[in-house]
Amino acid sequence: MIEINQLQKNFGEKKAVDIEKYSIYQGDMLGLVGNNGAGKTTLFRLILDLLQADLGNVTINDIDVSKNEDWKQFTGAFIDDGFLIDYLTPEEYFYFIGKMYGLKKEEVDERLLPFERFMSNEVLGQKKFIRNFSAGNKQKIGIISAMLHHPQLLILDEPFNFLDPSSQSIIKHLLRKYNEDHHATVIISSHNLNHTVDVCPRIALMENGVIIRDIQNENNSAEKELEDYFNVRVEEEIEEEKMEMTVQETAIQEVPVQETPVQETIVQPEEKEEQA
Ligand SMILES: Nc1ncnc2c1ncn2[C@@H]1O[C@H](COP(=O)(O)OP(=O)(O)OP(=O)(O)O)[C@@H](O)[C@H]1O
């Protein structure tokens, strides 16, 4: 179980995360949604102790993540391709990760089998380093490596990014199955509302660092609420843009009036020079 307690992270004046209290239970499949800059990645980084909180803390199974390392044994995460080791091949990387968790080479091979369709003959046996893979295939390598040791807690930041439609569909299925088979806690963030609603029975909506809604999603029941929320946001932004345009137009119309005194000030010095 993850407990977030009075957690705050600021970047200068910006409150990136400000969560009074939030609990994520073992076996939850939670989707984190919110506009750009809402604080999703910062929250993930705080949960994974990649960032130091200004206030408050995160505990995983009663372990304060910033004070004790035990949670790392049962946690898997992929936030961005900074997690990868560029100069290894995918195989070398998977075996390396496996070794960290005491898995033999054969066990790693066996655990890669369910990902065969996901990798679609483009990841294994390519004889090239991770740095030379496409963004989509790097994303696949990162997701698989986070799941390889069968963590009880899996955190994926924007797992559908860069993936082609069929890979998006496969990973949705794999994540759901993983959550069910292992009774694992799975937390993903996404801008794809359809995928989030398809996969996550619980959805947290973030705005300005705060979880403003905690939505139970049964049979895609959250779809309308989320669509309404994000459409409202878009409409508000369009309204704001219109207001800005009106202000700019007014300013443009006023230009000739403003130009007259400017011309006068140009003429005046010349006249003065002539007089001199
Ligand atoms: N290292 C940093 N230095 C300064 N500001 C940061 C830093 N990391 C994040 N921020 C700011 O904190 C806020 C939250 O950013 P964050 O990346 O967590 O949002 P997000 O919800 O993941 O956004 P996106 O959907 O665009 O990925 C933003 O205003 C961002 O600019």
UniProtKB/TrEMBL annotation:
<keyword id="KW-0547">Nucleotide-binding</keyword>
<protein>
    <recommendedName>
        <fullName>ABC transporter domain-containing protein</fullName>
    </recommendedName>
</protein>
<dbReference type="InterPro" id="IPR027417">
    <property type="entry name" value="P-loop_NTPase"/>
</dbReference>
<feature type="region of interest" description="Disordered">
    <location>
        <begin position="251"/>
        <end position="276"/>
    </location>
</feature>
<keyword id="KW-0813">Transport</keyword>
<dbReference type="InterPro" id="IPR003439">
    <property type="entry name" value="ABC_transporter-like_ATP-bd"/>
</dbReference>
<dbReference type="GO" id="GO:0005524">
    <property type="term" value="F:ATP binding"/>
</dbReference>
<dbReference type="InterPro" id="IPR003593">
    <property type="entry name" value="AAA+_ATPase"/>
</dbReference>
<feature type="coiled-coil region">
    <location>
        <begin position="212"/>
        <end position="251"/>
    </location>
</feature>
<dbReference type="Pfam" id="PF00005">
    <property type="entry name" value="ABC_tran"/>
</dbReference>
<feature type="domain" description="ABC transporter">
    <location>
        <begin position="2"/>
        <end position="233"/>
    </location>
</feature>
<keyword id="KW-0175">Coiled coil</keyword>
<dbReference type="InterPro" id="IPR017871">
    <property type="entry name" value="ABC_transporter-like_CS"/>
</dbReference>
<dbReference type="GO" id="GO:0016887">
    <property type="term" value="F:ATP hydrolysis activity"/>
</dbReference>
<dbReference type="InterPro" id="IPR051782">
    <property type="entry name" value="ABC_Transporter_VariousFunc"/>
</dbReference>
<keyword id="KW-0067">ATP-binding</keyword>
